[in-house]
Amino acid sequence: MPPSVLPDGLPVPADGALPASVREGLGGRQFGAYVHIPFCRVRCGYCDFNTYTATELGSVSQESYPDAVVKEIALAQRVLNDRGHNSALSTVFFGGGTPTLLPASALVDVLERLRDTFGIIPGAEISVEANPDSVDRDYLAELHAGGVTRVSFGMQSAVPHVLATLDRTHDPARVPEVVQAAKDVGLEVSVDLIYGTPGESLADWRTSLTQAIAMAPNHISAYALIIETGTAIARQIRRGEIAAVDDDLQAEMYELADAMLAEAGYEWYELSNWSKGGAYPSHHNLAYWRDTDWWGFGPGAHSHVNGVRFWNVKHPAAYANRLNGEQSPAAGYEELTPEERFEEVVLLRTRLREGMPTKDLPGATREKVAQLIADGLVEPAAAFRGQIIPTLRGRLLADVIARTLT
C-alpha cells in the first residue's frame, strides 16, 4: 500500500532556493521544525502516512537515517540565510512513523544539530511521538535529559478488539506504565485517541476515554477515524469484512468525549484537542493552525515559509540519495496567492477556541456571520465581541463554517 501521494507543484532548484518573495515580511515570524521519522515495525491498517517497514527501505537503514536529516538541516540553513531568515526555533516536533524506533541518543543528536544551526528559544516545546511499546523509563529519561519537554503516546484505544481492527500491536495495560514513567522523569504527556473504528461501540469509546482520563495526562487528542483510499482498512470495508464507519455514531462519540473531558478539567482549544486546565496545548500544532513558518525535515515532509509551501520526495532512499548528491530533497513547491492564504487562514483559525477576528473578513463576508449564528454554528456572544468561535455543533460542522466564510 503506497503512502499518500504528493501534491503537484513547481520544480525546486537543485540547491533548494526559495522564491525571492519569501523575504518580504519574513523577519520575526514564528519558526518551527518538524522532523519526520518514517519507520514503523508494522503498518497499521488505517494509516496513510509516509511510513515504511524494514522490508520497504531499500538501501536506507535506520542507523544511517539521522545523517541524512543532518544534511537537510545544513541545506535549510543555507537556503534560509539566503532569504534573510534569522528566527530561532520556537518548537520542534519529532513525528512519524515511530520516532522512538531510533535510539534516544539519535533523536537528541538531531535536536542538538537543530539547536546549533538555528538556535532554540528558551522554554521551547520539544515533542516526540512514541508508541507505548517502544519506550521505557530509561529511554524517556534520556530524551528529557537531551532537551525534550513533551512526549505524545499513540494510545488510540483501551479496548483490545478496537486495537486489533486498527492493527495496533501494543498491550493496553502498557499505556499507564509509560505515561507514569514519562511524568516521573519530568516530561509533559499527551495521549492520542481514535474514535469511530468499525465495530467500536459507544460503550467501548467510553472505556477508552475513562482510562485516558484516569492517567491524568496533560493533553488528550481525539481524532475521528478517516478511511483513506488505498489503506488496508478501506479494502476490508470494500470487501464487506468489516462495517463502514458510522458518521452519526462518530458525532455521538465526539460529543461524549467533549462532555467527559470537560468534566475532568480538560479544555478544548482545537476541534480534536483538549488541554488540562487549558495550560498544556501543543504549541507546535498551534503554530500550524496560526499560519506560521516551519521547515519539515525528512522524506515526504512538508514545509511552509511565508506563503511558500514545499515538500520532499517520499521514499527514504530517494531522500538520502539527493542529499548525498548535494541536492535538495524537495520534490515541488507552490506559492500561495493572497486568496489561497486567506482561505487557509479561515479554514484553520475557525477550528480554534481562540477563534478568528471578524475584522479579518471582507465586508460582504461578515454579513454571513449572522446566518452562522442563526444556524447555531458560532458562539453569538463571541461574534458580537468580534471573534468567530465554533459552538459544539459548529465543531461537528466545521467545514460548513469555512465554506460559508470563503
Structure described in brief:
With 406 residues, this protein is α/β, with parallel strands linked by helices. 37% of the residues lie in helices and 20% in strands. InterPro entries: Aldolase_TIM, Coproporphyrinogen-III_oxidase, Elp3/MiaA/NifB-like_rSAM, HemW-like, rSAM, rSAM_sf.
CATH architecture of the largest domain: Alpha-Beta Barrel
The helix fraction, in percent, is 25-40%
Mean pLDDT: 92
Distance between the termini: 35 Å
Kindly report the oligomeric state of this protein.
single chain
CATH superfamily of the largest domain: Aldolase class I
Q: How many whole angstroms does the radius of gyration measure?
A: 21 Å
Number of strands: 14
Which strands sit side by side, in order, in the main sheet? 7-8-6-5-4-3-2-1-9
SSE string, helix = H, strand = E?
EHEHEHEHHEHEHHEEHEEEHEHEHHHEHH
Overall tally of domains: 2
Per CATH, the class of the largest domain reads: Alpha Beta
Function: Probably acts as a heme chaperone, transferring heme to an unknown acceptor. Binds one molecule of heme per monomer, possibly covalently. Binds 1 [4Fe-4S] cluster. The cluster is coordinated with 3 cysteines and an exchangeable S-adenosyl-L-methionine.
Keywords: 4Fe-4S, Chaperone, Cytoplasm, Heme, Iron, Iron-sulfur, Metal-binding, S-adenosyl-L-methionine
Protein name: Heme chaperone HemW
Family: Belongs to the anaerobic coproporphyrinogen-III oxidase family. HemW subfamily.
